[in-house]
Design goal:
4 copies of one chain form a homotetramer. Chain A is built from 8 helices and 18 strands. By secondary structure, chain A is of the alpha+beta class. In chain A, helix 1 packs across helix 3, helix 3 packs across helix 8 and helix 6 runs antiparallel to helix 8. Chain A is globular, with a radius of gyration of 21 Å. Chains A and B meet through strand 1, helix 2, helix 6, strand 11 and helix 7 of A and strand 1, helix 2, helix 6, strand 11 and helix 7 of B.
Chain lengths: ~350, ~350, ~350, ~350
């Protein structure tokens, strides 16, 4: 369950209903200032209970730092942050070891771990684990910013409703600010309202919706990454697919590139303000596995939350009989809004590791 | 440039115009039989010179095994295979250190490595490096087959023309055989002819086309993979993005999942022939980062080859002036057909590592 | 600061005077029973405050498990255990950033980390970090025992006074029991009394003494380990040198082997109770980097505690003037008795990783 | 069989009687000049056939570079060097799969790998594999030298006869030159002659002798390494124990430190030429797992060559009967002289990785 970079390792631990979730960042240099208030604000973007579109579970998500900081500065020792799990309703989950929820980790986890699997709240497969990921990524984001690098994400689509995309050439910190100031992380407020309506509609139908998060990175130096398995796309995608519910990842034009001709897709080099730049950015800022200096443009697709209130077919693994299952309890009809900072966090961790 | 699994490490080396390319597989158990003829046949599917749609460069791509085999069986020592580079025209490339080709590795590689970068043929960023990858993956494929696991891929699309997709429930070894017996790796011969026409059209226009490869895996046990960064999608995507020109990777419904509702996307469990199965397979065989036992369904998008004969804009990095560049020489107007076995090879390496 | 095995990763975190020290074990299979009472008893062997030979610092060293256990059984998620630091006197250490203590980590740590280094109690270089190591190793020891493998260590020497060594052929679990039942971990009680006298003598002289720990492993299968960097001696030594104060590690006859002839040192194979065994065990149970099935025999030398009460020469790094330093406060005159379970813990972690 | 550093990976491959042995260095920056003549001279110090004290096997040990160099400069791609195995007498080894040679890898390798183990010449456990290690280490040594860091080793002892040790405070490049200029790598020529006599005596008795190599590193910056498992001693010992026949590794006073008091062993800080230094160097240049800036002082003990001409007891694994074995063929009566550059090579690789 570790992020293993070349210099940076982030060990995430915890289960949804264990005493705590947390993380250890190993490999951080000494002397990094951590602004705890900004970190808390970053984590709040992921935290539940922000609106009708999220789960009713309420948790402060305030990390306790057990090690690695002297005051608010890294001291060179691994940073451990722990977030207690408090508002848990464990009685809801006992049945799913026998009758796995469709499209949840229940079935493969039971086969893999047996009856010892801590299925309460989804165990270590719960989106709850993205809280410590954000604690780690939030520190990475602050460090990147101190180096002139900014990462920002927004909802590109929910339920097929699309937000305005980032400008792959001119995306700027102002775009990131706009998304963050917005209660709902989109560029186009109108699209956001439609998305919220679609989420609410799904919720009322005891259903859920998926979506796409687009993430950009600006201010990156040229040449981060390497050939083959050392490529930046490999590292970023490995990080992004670690986020629960991600089913596709693309860079730049992504799947659309497959339908273009080379003459359409190639990004010619030009001089912009006296510096080498690309006239277009179909590559999404990565060529040959390495950064080109153009904005990094990433998309990650999230499947609809598998926890829905409608009755579903399943199999009782103990009796080996087909059965029907109804999931009760509190669930996000859409994880995408809360996933936006998680995508930023993971992107930041990967980039920080490559830059260290 | 290494594939670093938990048990298996594949170190790929070489540049397009170095004396050789090759690979070392470390972590193979002793006693694996390697059928060299079948390995050669597998590598031939990637080799150039098969038709009008590939580069005119001709190389036998016959690996010489320097170590790790006793006869045709692994002996427990690392397996090293070397493929000599013979048919190289190095004079073609000298100019690109100054004037980088758009959407090639030239520019970031020069910034990263300086003038020592061996730009001939694209250096270590060349698709030539997929030859040793196939040597390694071909061994993994044989091993997987001995365990009842089969991997097969086909061209899902070229230039927007789509092949019939694999049946995500019922895909079988017969589908893989059909694709392999076909000279052009598609399920639907008619679609294949249209693709070939589109490739030829692009070639005549001194242009290139991209495409999509779909890969399936069958016979996998339930529970391969783990939570978060240990997830199978992370490992597979990291491998697939290591293949030059891949710009997007998806599992199951991928980006389309983002527009579905949970009630549409969830895969209900049923009994099929007395065993737990899923009625649908939107998940592409992976839930919670773990295999479900359903067919693995992966898609990888390849951008159009950046080497096109048309004049392109670029910048002379030595004089810092905008200029025009014309690439001559031999180039694939479409890498997708030759990429099909490469996708199989990488998928096999990742799965073998998880199974060991 | 991580132990990185092939399957098992142990991330240790904390500083001597941070809120806590702790560890995360990643890669444990589900279903391992953890006997917390026995774990506590194991950790008590390392804990301070056991006698006149240890520091006066008193801490319960009771790990709180934040994750990874369902009841007392591993659930397949990473196990995190945290041990709070309570009895800390941080005011004692402030001066050493300017005037480093000889043979402590102070000087290189200040150069490496700058003034942000958390020097209180030695920071992350403190022997306090061996508490979470024992929590992890204690779990490994229980698992190994369930597989018929036992690890035991004793003090081989303190201040030049030697204990009776393990019999390299016939060492058994009874020897380990004897050492553990003994308050002072030696085989020969008489030698133990002499060691205690030497420690007390050093303490009264405001001085310290070093020593040697010998560790044995029995019940191991043949063939654990591999060639070159995959060798078991490499893995074990890397683990043992991670223990603060270890300055030498040897296997079997160790340095003495260098003075022997092959005819003296070689271990002839014989049949013992119908099974292949070696007539002698100069190899310490490892040949060619692999276990031979004979008892594993390891020695680790510990330097004398650098914290001594006598005035010592040092340099003021701020004024760059030579000066004299006197260390006050509570310190072990000898770490060796408390290091015995730490050596067992690290040995167990390495072996468990190789066996998984 | 890989050296896995943080930045640098060296994959060694080959068996004694495979077509070749070789290595791939991954992670080398572009632009490192490789002086092939000096590299060849370095490798010649390890090569067989230099005198009566080495095996009669003669091989040029000239590496062919297959990749990673543009001319004589690293280009940023992995460097692969291959050394062909030519002068092999494979018929000598067939019997040892049934009747393992005492203190060779034969027995555990057969149990581990089964009958597929390539036992000829010891397979991947052969000291022959140190040839590619020296190719890699030789490049590291050249790079370190370009950074003002020098590594040198000598025979500290053979058959109990001791050379003058390096001065742990004042050891200099002149000492390294003296050892290299000497045909036999010692500081004290008289001791060298006694060692040669002892080797010859053992050879005539169909026996072998062991010894100790001492290695020093000078010019290192302060603070290389880290706490616990990140310590430099862990990395160096893991590397050194990878060398066949090493059974003990120590730093500074090593095992002797265990018998000293803190007041004797501590290294007080002083100013020397206006810079912080230590008055003594019992630590061997490493405290808290980090370099102190004082010379690095390492000792590695080599067991006597297990291949001796005298009849030895063993067991026939096929018939499970005790038997007698006589090893014929060409063998070093002492590997220590040839091991001197290997110790330098491994030390250089570890240090280069920490410095990158």
């Amino acid at each position: 369950m570790q992020f293993k970079g070349n210099k940076l390792t982030v060990t995430v631990f915890g289960q949804s209903h264990a005493p705590a979730v947390g993380m250890v960042m190993d490999g951080l240099p000494a002397g990094i200032a951590v602004d705890r208030e900004r970190l808390q604000a970053f984590m709040a973007r992921r935290a539940p209970g922000q609106g009708s579109f999220t789960t009713a579970r309420k948790e402060a998500d305030t990390p306790e730092f057990l090690s690695g900081l002297a005051g608010n500065t890294t001291c060179g020792a691994p940073v451990c942050a722990v977030i207690r799990n408090s508002d848990t309703h464990s009685r809801d989950y006992s049945q799913f070891l026998a009758v796995p929820r469709p499209s949840h980790a229940d079935y493969p986890a039971r086969v893999k771990f047996g009856r010892n699997f801590d299925i309460r709240g989804g165990g270590q497969f719960s989106a709850r684990l993205t809280a410590p990921l954000c604690a780690a990524g939030g520190i990475a984001l602050q460090w990147l910013e101190s180096k002139g690098i900014q990462i920002g994400a927004h909802i590109a689509a929910i339920a097929g409703i699309q937000d305005r995309p980032f400008d792959p050439i001119a995306v700027s910190g102002k775009d990131f600010d706009r998304v963050r100031e917005n209660g709902f992380p989109v560029l186009d407020a109108e699209a956001g309202r439609s998305m919220l309506a679609a989420i609410e509609e799904a919720r009322l139908a005891q259903d859920s919706v998926g979506g796409i998060v687009e993430c950009a990175g600006i201010g990156l130096p040229v040449g981060l990454g390497d050939a083959l398995f050392g490529g930046l796309e490999s590292a970023l995608s490995a990080g992004l697919f670690a986020i629960p519910a991600v089913k596709a990842v693309s860079f730049g034009s992504g799947f659309e590139a497959a339908a273009l001709r080379g003459s359409q897709h190639n990004d010619p080099y030009i001089l912009r303000s006296g510096r080498v730049a690309a006239a277009t950015n179909h590559a999404g800022g990565i060529v040959g596995g390495m950064t080109t200096g153009m904005p990094l443009i990433i998309k990650a697709a999230f499947k609809p939350t598998p926890s829905i209130g409608q009755p579903q077919r399943s199999v009782n693994l103990d009796t080996m009989e087909e059965t029907t299952l109804t999931i009760t309890g509190r669930h996000d009809p859409c994880v995408v809004p809360r996933a936006v900072p998680v995508v930023e966090a993971v992107t930041a961790l990967v980039l920080m590791d490559k830059l260290l």
